[in-house]
Amino acid sequence: MGSALAVICGLLLWVMPVGEKWSEASYDYLFRFGTREVTNQIVVVLMDNDAYAEESQTREQPWDRSLHAKLLNKLADDGCRMVVFDVFFRKQGDVEEDKALAAAMHRLRDVVLTAEQANVAHPGLDAAQPTLPLETFLNASHTNWGVAWLNPDLDMIVRRHWPFPNPGPYPSLPWTAASLSGARLSEMPAERWLRYYDFNKAWPSLSYHLALAKGPNYFRNKIVFIGSKPRTSLPDGEADKFQTPYTSWTGEAVGGVEILVTSYLNLMNGDWLRRLAWPMEGLLLILTGTVLGGMLSRFSRGKAFGLAIVAALVFTIIGIGLSYFTNLWFPWLIIVYGQVPGALAWAILMPLKVNVELRPAPDKTIVLTFPEDKLPYAPDYELFEPSIGEGGFGKVWIVRNAIGQWQALKAVYQSKFGDNRHPYESEFKGLQKYKPVSEKHPGLLRIDLVSKMKDDGYFYYVMELGDAQVPGWEQNPVSYRPRDLENMRKQSGNKPLPVAECLRIGTVLVDALDFLHRQGLTHRDIKPSNVIFVNGRPKLADVGLVTDIRPLEQINTFVGTPGYMPPPPERPGTQQADIYALGMMLYVISTGNDPKFFPDIATTLLERRDHADFIRLDSIILKACQPDTVQRYQTSSEMLRDLQGASKQ
């Protein structure tokens, strides 16, 4: 039993969304205990605050190309090995300055230029259609170019090489630079994780004006990366600013050029990290859970606690050492914070079960009841057992009312919330507010009845029944399964839905959401599994989290589903968070991707017949899911107008 508990704890954390945080933390903390040294001759020249001031340049404006020409001529005089520009040269500037810069590029052995994304406002299309530099500079660099693009996770930390897997259809900037430097790179796509180095020790970083002032031959045989340094190191919304695993303990963000240098060194030295294949990880978690559970339960509580600490330290050392001495990593914190505590809990509880002497009470008998095992008392409905579904708050049954209509009944139990009665009461109040408005819009799942809160610690509500996945279920009511957007995707093999169908679904749901917002309510949990079809019409369902629209300072609960919640530090539970969730749902059904891959899209989607319609839909999705709330739709009615306009074209 101890082994089984430890194995289950590990596997659940491994496959469930909540465990992604432990997996990401396992990667992040690999670099907390030391990094590999870098011997490559790298110099990073930064356009930082001092350089802007010294060279009289203006932020948000292109850097003076005569300064670039001056720097490149100095690098050529010094015998610089290669220059990599994390700078876009997409527009023509002063003719004479452009000629001088192109001439300076000609003098160098190798220059790699940045290819810009096709449209910065539509990053989902970037990898498919890069915009190359001006032909003048492209010829001067011998057509050496690469896409400078980083793909952060939802917490804005960059953990993987772009594209993932790579290489992709177009080379990245580090890939081109490493190829020119003689790195042996396989064209076979592989999933590569970044191995971070200590930015303060791995390479020297010079302010642009100091690089110009360096003595002769300083840059001989060196690789020079030129890029911008953000105005501040605060992790805010400034352009070309990203977070790294070090952010969790320093709170500082870095410029994109430093991560591009990291990617280049990974490729040059074969330093990138590879995660263990999923069969190996699964087998490892089964083995460690079996050993931990079986071992700790054989000792007394004190010894088991001490051994648990030792085991946690051992697996920490193994996890970190594996990545340091090899190129492999695995989510070791799932073992440390999932399996070890699970095995220890069983080891502590097992003696209680064995040694406690049970004696009958002399005066009375104490009966412990569990309301969630008790059927709700609904005398006006015929209830069919067993339940057809169970969630975190209660259970759902198929019922038939007095006039023979099929409906769904959900019971919500106080015991599901433990000793905290507030969520139980909040669920009841939310349904009280939602029921009257549910009857006034066809895009909302209608609630027909909400019972009183019973003394036994539960209440129930009755709602309209969604379409069934399989016809003929009435002969065996417990076989009923609702047709929702999630199972519809799974039945199609997670293939993208036609754009016309996505627009139809999106228009109906945004219209319903707009109505809900105008009633002063937010949904707070929009996702494919919470969209149910009734007579073929999509409806927002699972309304237990519906609540009043409140000011940000009054929001003290964080609810929703990871992947459909806006990225931090934005708080969920707002109108704009609902808009973000609905946009992410449209991304999922229109591309077939999981939310974690947003905003990436497969190049095959650009070859479909409804290509133009898809681009219009994608622009709406990207605006709905903008991390910056200022650039996002401010109201659901704005998003509704765009969807209706796209449907008419």
What does this structure look like?
By secondary structure, this protein is of the alpha/beta class. The chain has four domains: 2-21 and 275-355; 37-270, no CATH class; 371-479, Phosphorylase Kinase, domain 1 (2-Layer Sandwich); 485-648, Transferase(Phosphotransferase), domain 1 (Orthogonal Bundle), CATH 1.10.510. Helices cover 39% and strands 13% of the residues. The protein contains 20 helices and 19 strands. The protein has helices spanning 2-15, 20-28, 49-54, 65-78, 95-107, 135-140, 173-180, 199-202, 208-212, 247-250, 256-269, 278-296, 301-325, 332-355, 422-438, 485-491, 499-518, 575-591, 611-624, 636-648, and strands at 42-47, 82-88, 111-115, 145-147, 205-207, 223-228, 241-242, 254-255, 274-275, 328-329, 382-390, 394-400, 406-413, 447-450, 458-464, 521-522, 531-534, 537-540, 547-548. It has a six-stranded parallel sheet. The chain has a five-stranded antiparallel sheet with strand order 11-12-13-15-14, covered by helices on one side. A two-stranded antiparallel sheet has the order 7-8. Strand 14 and strand 15 (458-464) form a beta hairpin. Helix 2 (20-28) packs across helix 14 and helix 17 (499-518) packs antiparallel against helix 20 (636-648). The protein starts with a helix and ends with a helix. 39% of the residues are buried. Residues 119-127 and 352-370 have low confidence and may be disordered.
